[in-house]
Amino acid sequence: MKKQEYAIVDIETTGGNATHSRITEIAIIIHDGEKVIDRWETLVNPQKHIPDAIFALTGITNEMVREAPIFDLISDQVFELLKDRVFVAHNVNFDYSFVRHELERAGLKWTAKKLCTVRAARKIKPGLPSYSLGRLCSSLDIDLENRHRAGGDADATAILLSRLLEWDHEKVMDVMIKKTSQEQQLPPNLPKEDFDQLPDKPGVYYFYDEHKKVVYIGKAVNLKKRVSSHFGGHKITPQRQHFLRDIYAITYEVCGTELMALLLECSEIKQLWPIHNKALKRFEPKFGLFEYEARNGYRYLAIGKLAKNQNCLETFDSIYRGINLLQELAKQFEIDQRFCKYGSMSDGVFTTHNDTAALPEIEVHNDTIQVAIDFYLNSRPSFAIIDKGRTTDERSCIWVENGHFFGMGYLDSDLVITDPSQVKEYVTPCKSNQYIMQLIFSHAQKYPRTVHIQKRDDNFVAFE
Fold it and tell me: Domain named GIY-YIG: which ranges (predicted)?
């Protein structure tokens, strides 16, 4: 039986992702499981400018690579060195993505079993201060010369591999290099235990960076399956590579239903504002319905931009929604359009804009504004959604008050609900926005039996 051989690879590049960056140097060391049997390295002409920041890190200049071969000219040699060998690198997915992308550009289809020496070292030598190549070599007394050059880093990684093979009494690396091993798909800094603990239940998951700061929040119908989907595939965008590199830990919270997970995700993103959450941030309300009294004593209604933490009567994700609502209120309660402002908040002096029509009596007008406000605020529904809990001993509950998400929580399954105030005692208050209310109303229409609405006579009955 042929002995398993390893191709230890290190590369230097013009940037951090394989889509837009190119290789400037590559070193490949062949290891037969006991010793190094071959070694090859070369500079590579990336056919693009090397940024100053990369030069400062690696010392590789544009002049140094000008006469070097382009990758196409060395692709066959690289392919032969890697063929039928385990691809080994420190943070393997980074080097692998570049090499595979460059080979594909040269017309060579190639895949390989992978071994990440970051992950292997974490398993075989747990508890070290750091698993970066430099600090790991320092901890293990491995000589590291020509740091941030392909040859120097590859030589150090080869020594590290030899040590790990010697110390691997449990044969954990044999498991890691199996092509079906899910561990090879995990981010290099993420402990496998964090992934293994994830349940097959709905909930919210949190990704943390090395400083224990939340960098991403997501919701899932199946936590384990959803988190796993982040790490699969062969995407080489810079956003994905930075995202995976930032993940050092995972925690989660099980939720009773998908709706509870959606609402918790929205609430947590709004509170923690993780750097890698992009999609839900665009649902932040941008406009508001304001009421104010000008210096002339008249009260106004206005649609304007919403500043952070600014109070208003209602929020909107677009100015058009706000304008439509204000026009409907003005029409329904016969409010003079001169007291309706669209597009900006103003506390300036009232002007007639060349309108010579008599102004309404100030007290009558102000009372009309108040009636319109009271009508709108009180006409919005208050209701509860009661559904499955996290266990058979509880139920999930959501309370909406006057058309706004009030909060969410869990209550005992044997508790008899006869009054809406009972539900409010079991929820944790949360901030509302239009996206959250769209989710809630969509659920209410799809699953009306889970919804109970407070009628004007205060009876608590099924949602209609």
Answer: 200-278
Burial of 55 (0-12, 13-18, 19+ CB in 10 A): middle
DSSP lists the bridge partners of residue 214 as 208
Residues in the chain: 464
Rounded distance, CA 97 to CA 93, Å?
A: 6
Q: Using CA atoms, how far apart are residues 381 and 456, in angstroms rounded to an integer?
A: 10
- Cα 444–447–451 angle (5° rounding)? 55
In 3D, which of 333, 289, 346, 292 has the Cα closest to residue 313?
A: 289
Same fold, 6-178 and 192-272: no
With beta carbons less than 8 A apart as the criterion, state whether 37 and 3 touch: no
| Domain 6-178 indexed as CATH 3.30.420.10 | yes
Are 314 and 289 in contact, with CB atoms under 8 Å apart? yes
In tens, the pLDDT along 173-195 reads: 988 887 545 666 788 888 888 99
The answer to whether the CB of 121 falls within 8 A of the CB of 160 is yes
Q: Any idea of the CA torsion for 131, 135, 136, 138, to the nearest 10 degrees?
A: -170
The alpha helices in 23-111, defined as continuous H runs, are 52-58, 62-66, 71-82, 92-105
Identify the top-confidence range among 15-19, 31-35, 304-308: 31-35
Which residue has 């060395």 as its token pair? 74
- Sorted by where each begins, the domain ranges of the chain are 6-178, 192-272, 287-370, 383-453
In SS3 terms, 295-333 reads as CCCCEEEEEEECCCCCCCCEEECCHHHHHHHHHHHHHHC
pLDDT in tens, 267-326: 899 888 898 887 665 566 788 889 999 888 999 999 988 877 677 888 887 888 889 889
Paired with 115 in beta bridges are 88
Widest CA span in the chain:
101
C-alpha to C-alpha distances, 258 to 96, 139, 261, 443, nearest whole angstrom: 36, 46, 5, 10
Which CATH code is given to the segment(s) 192-272? 3.40.1440.10
CB-count exposure of residue 340 (10 Å: 0-12, 13-18, 19+): middle
* Nearest alpha-carbon partner for 159 in 140, 135, 184, 131: 140
